[in-house]
Amino acid sequence: MVKASAQRKTIVVGVVGVLSLLAESWGNQVWAQNAPLKVDTGDTAWVLVSSAFVLAMLMPGLALFYGGLVRTKNVLGTIMQSVMILSVVSLLWILFGYSLAFGPDHGGLIGGLEWVGLSGVGSEPHPVYGPTIPHQAFMLFQLMFAAIAPALITGAFAERKRFTSVVLFAALWSILVYVPLAHWIWGGGWLAQLGALDFAGGAVIHISSGAAALICAIVLGKRRGYGTDYMAPHNLPMTLLGTGFLWFGWFGFNGGSALGANGVAVSAILATHAAAAMGSIAWCGAEWAHRGKPTVLGVASGAVAGLATVTPAAGYIGPMSAIAIGLVAGMTCYAAIVWKGRFGYDDSLDVVGIHGVGGVIGILATGLFASKAVNAGGADGLFFGNPSLFGIQLLVVVVTTTFTIIGTFPILKLVDSLTGLRVSSEEEATGLDLSQHNERAYS
Amino acid sequence: MKLIEAIVKPFKLDEVKDALLEIGIQGMTVTEVKGFGRQKGHKETYRGQEYTIEFVPKVKIEVAVNDGQVRRVLETITRAAKTGSIGDGKIFVRDLTAAVRIRTGETGESAL
Hints:
The complex is a heterodimer.
Chain A: H1 4-29, H2 41-69, H3 75-102, E1 105-106, E2 110-111, H4 135-153, H5 163-186, H6 190-194, H7 202-220, H8 236-255, H9 263-291, H10 296-310, H11 319-343, H12 351-369, H13 387-419, H14 425-430, H15 432-437
Antiparallel strand pairs in A: 1-2
Helix pairs in contact in A: 1-13, 2-3, 2-4, 2-8, 3-4, 3-5, 4-5, 4-7, 5-7, 5-13, 7-12, 7-13, 8-9, 8-10, 9-10, 9-11, 10-11, 10-12, 11-12, 12-13
Chain B: E1 2-8, H1 13-22, E2 29-35, E3 42-46, E4 49-53, E5 56-65, H2 70-81, E6 89-95
Antiparallel strand pairs in B: 1-5, 1-6, 2-5, 3-4
Helix pairs in contact in B: 1-2
């Protein structure tokens, strides 16, 4: 392994390496294939099933995970946010989101409008986006990813955001923040050209939603009664059910990112499971030592922290590396949510502490643990003799965080001027279920 | 006549009731209540966030008795409701100035 002094040196080397990789990496690797592409039925079946897995992560997975964590009066409003975001982003993605993210590259910054309405995105494989599956299968898979990122953010402003402002914010954020990031890292944009590795969305989904969550929590302010009122989760079995769907769905989230039923998919799922298992034990252990009791919510949160953290690395690492990542994820994310209280912002369901912190650790860990022995299409990380990758991954963290923060703030201000961000004090006291939807979850 | 109010742990209710029936007490009123004494509630922890629950669920048993029964009833409730740990509850005794059996119109001790 590597000593601390060498690591510091590596960062410098890495940033230099960014420049040298600019020329070679992307061009060589991808657009080269000229032979006619043939659809593989096994690969296609796996990517389609994976798309359904990722759908289950959001609906009902995330919806129940968040729904159980809020108070009785807000459970429907919370679930509603995930479900409506799924529908809205799905349509945006088909209409023009996919084209902007994955369409033909313009200056490394954004995709073109050539694929608006999915014209030209059909059953023929695309040479880069899965040469053995129909292009539409890749698009469908990516649609699910696009839907889950803004839904994750809803945890930050839980129990107090006006429904119309949630939907408007999610739509704008998806197009103005998520689409460019997806293009830069996955759609042949400038970070991809530098050789950045993000297997299934550590930066594109988890850092971006975590950074946006921080801005949302600060701009919206705390819930009424935060710190004094009893705000315990109203239904932890519901949260556990959601955790189960998340863990289950993550097999498709990470395994499907191999874009085929192959060895990379298998090792990605193994890494995913190992990190989730270790993450749950690590969080539970940290909490047990710190607060005296092992908690159900701790086990669930640790599993999600492990899953989020291993996401960018899953297809590039071996099982032992995954266990190391899960260990760091569980303990660090627990520390992050404990320290949250000192910063004074009300990230109600801990999107920053779990997805933001987990995403950053995962992207950096990819720069350490990635191995070409696991995935020849990836790269070696610092522990496998290639320090420059760590520099690139560090750049990804800085760029994703900065861009998301700069992008999210004006969107919130715009939505505030159009619809207002928060519900009124009276509506907040009544709860979102009745005030926003005229319904009650338990009557 | 005295009115005896016993605040006890909810899981001790059946034992107290059975013990009182055994010594000849024929009726009682039971209410679910919340409160705290030296026990001072309990703590709940969710993702490291601690909540102190100050009001603990208890059961209040009210028994109206004649003066001669008071000592025995107090001993019986104390014995049946005791666990020895903090939070076992308290018993209060107050004077009862009148009692009426609604069905028959009897008053005083014969109404108990």
